[in-house]
């Protein structure tokens, strides 16, 4: 091997050793993967989607089945079923309302109390009077409507709320339960005075009475014309009649803060004094053998007092008895209870619907049915099915044809803006019985002031006793 080759071989060996000793270049780290933010769930904006904010945010009413215990029967129940089917078919929330007749108000009260005693929720929707609401709330059975009414998504607009007659929507507010609104008015009835216009004109009067003095004069004239103890005014001894006369004479049977009773005010004294005088003078009489409408239709009474819900029965009897007697039917109507106030003050009453405390989704679904059922267009359908009065002024625009066909209904409808209401206190059912007893004692000759003083004391004792359970 020559020297040149030896030198090249040595150089190659050295180079190899140098390369082996040098560290290999560091492998380049792969670029860091950028973390992707989790995809946001798409906002639910479909029909009846839960509210995004407000007290009822996140509550989903869709697909709920709601049971309603009600008292409607016969043709009224059949017509109600048609309205309910409309809701079930067309509401965008997919809510199903199951409307169930449970008998009368007493039957519903018994069922609610039985459910409560067993620790079960009653039906999501129930019906009853304002004193029922107070009784149920002793056990916190009911939801407060204000959380629905005031909700920015599901509630009533200011315009919608103002459309309800104030006395109707305030009737379910309970001062003794911290002002909770425990009922909502789907319909109402009114105490009215039924009068026979044809007969009054024959007796020389131009129209129905507007004051108590005119009323007494006309009733006495009709009684004198009959001459047999009939012809005047048929007395009513129940608490609603007593309240009606008290309102009409400028008083109230509740104290100023609506927490107790005042049956011994001057207006009630004046009303009892007038009615007792009319009884003694033969200008008023008791009729206890049935309903008063046949007596009225047969001219055995020039005036009767009763619920506006009786209008169809009066209309039927007026036609039937005129045909039986072979004469033209008398012209008749309804008017305000004769009053001493500048404007009428009418006793408006009726059961409310109540939402029972339960799952929030059920409560909201129940409210959405009530909101729909009390809309003017639907209320108009319910008026024609039931002959009840609407609870919203805007409903009247949808009743033009019905009023033309039922003029007496129209007379009463015009009085809805003058409403007052009876006590919603928990004791009122028992107090009603006491008021009826007191009325009959007065008509039998008991001292008016002393009897009404005793009634007031008894009524407030009953209230205090029952409210003791709340404390």
The CATH topology of the largest domain is D-Maltodextrin-Binding Protein, domain 2
CATH architecture level-2 label of the largest domain: 3-Layer(aba) Sandwich
CATH C-level of the largest domain: Alpha Beta
Low-pLDDT segments: 1-34
Distance between the termini: 122 Å
Classify the helix fraction into a percent range: 40-55%
Computed structural class: alpha/beta
Mean pLDDT: 91
CATH superfamily of the largest domain: Periplasmic binding protein-like II
Q: What fraction strand?
A: 5-15%
Largest sheet: 7 strands, mixed
What would you note in describing this structure?
It contains 19 helices and 13 strands. By secondary structure, it is an alpha/beta fold. Strand 1, helix 2 and strand 2 form a beta-alpha-beta unit. Helix 2 packs antiparallel against helix 15, helix 10 packs across helix 11 and helix 18 packs antiparallel against helix 19. The chain is globular and about 75 Å long.
């Amino acid at each position: 091997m020559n020297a040149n080759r030896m030198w090249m071989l040595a150089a190659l060996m050295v180079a190899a050793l140098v390369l082996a000793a040098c560290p290999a270049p560091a492998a380049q780290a792969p670029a860091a993967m950028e973390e992707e933010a989790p995809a946001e769930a798409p906002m639910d904006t479909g029909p009846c989607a839960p509210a995004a904010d407000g007290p009822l945010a996140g509550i989903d009413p869709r697909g709920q089945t709601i049971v309603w215990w009600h008292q409607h029967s016969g043709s009224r129940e059949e017509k109600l079923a048609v309205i309910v089917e409309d809701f079930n078919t067309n509401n965008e929330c997919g809510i199903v309302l199951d409307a169930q007749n449970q008998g009368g108000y007493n039957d519903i009260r018994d069922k609610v109390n039985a459910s409560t005693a067993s620790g079960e929720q009653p039906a999501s929707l129930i019906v009853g009077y304002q004193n029922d609401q107070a009784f149920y709330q002793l056990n916190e059975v009911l939801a407060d409507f204000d959380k629905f009414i005031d909700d920015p998504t599901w509630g009533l607009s200011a315009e919608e709320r103002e459309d309800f007659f104030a006395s109707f929507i305030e009737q379910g507010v309970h001062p003794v339960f911290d002002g909770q609104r425990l009922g909502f008015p789907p319909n109402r009835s009114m105490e009215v005075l039924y009068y026979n216009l044809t007969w009054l004109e024959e007796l020389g009067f131009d129209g129905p009475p507007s004051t108590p003095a005119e009323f007494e004069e006309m009733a006495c004239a009709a009684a004198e014309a009959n001459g047999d103890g009939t012809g005047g005014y048929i007395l009513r001894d129940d608490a609603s009649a007593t309240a009606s006369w008290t309102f009409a004479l400028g008083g109230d049977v509740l104290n100023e803060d609506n927490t107790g009773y005042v049956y011994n005010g001057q207006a009630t004294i004046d009303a009892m004094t007038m009615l007792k005088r009319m009884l003694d003078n033969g200008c008023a009489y008791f009729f206890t053998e049935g309903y008063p409408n046949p007596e009225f239709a047969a001219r055995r009474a020039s005036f009767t007092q009763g619920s506006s819900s009786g209008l169809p029965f009066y209309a039927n009897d007026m036609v039937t008895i005129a045909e039986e007697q072979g004469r033209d039917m008398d012209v008749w109507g309804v008017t305000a209870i004769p009053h001493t106030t500048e404007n009428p003050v009418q006793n408006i009453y009726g059961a409310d619907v109540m939402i029972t405390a339960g799952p929030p989704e059920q409560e909201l679904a129940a409210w959405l049915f009530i909101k729909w059922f009390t809309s003017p267009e639907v209320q108009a359908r319910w008026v024609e099915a039931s002959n009840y009065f609407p609870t919203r002024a805007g409903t009247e625009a949808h009743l033009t044809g019905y009023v033309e066909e039922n003029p007496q209904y129209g007379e009463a409808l015009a009085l809805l803006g003058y409403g007052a209401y009876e006590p919603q206190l928990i004791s009122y059912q028992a107090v009603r019985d006491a008021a009826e007893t007191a009325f009959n004692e007065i008509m039998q000759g008991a001292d008016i002031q002393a009897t009404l003083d005793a009634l007031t004391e008894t009524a407030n004792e009953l209230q205090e006793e029952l409210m003791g359970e709340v404390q």
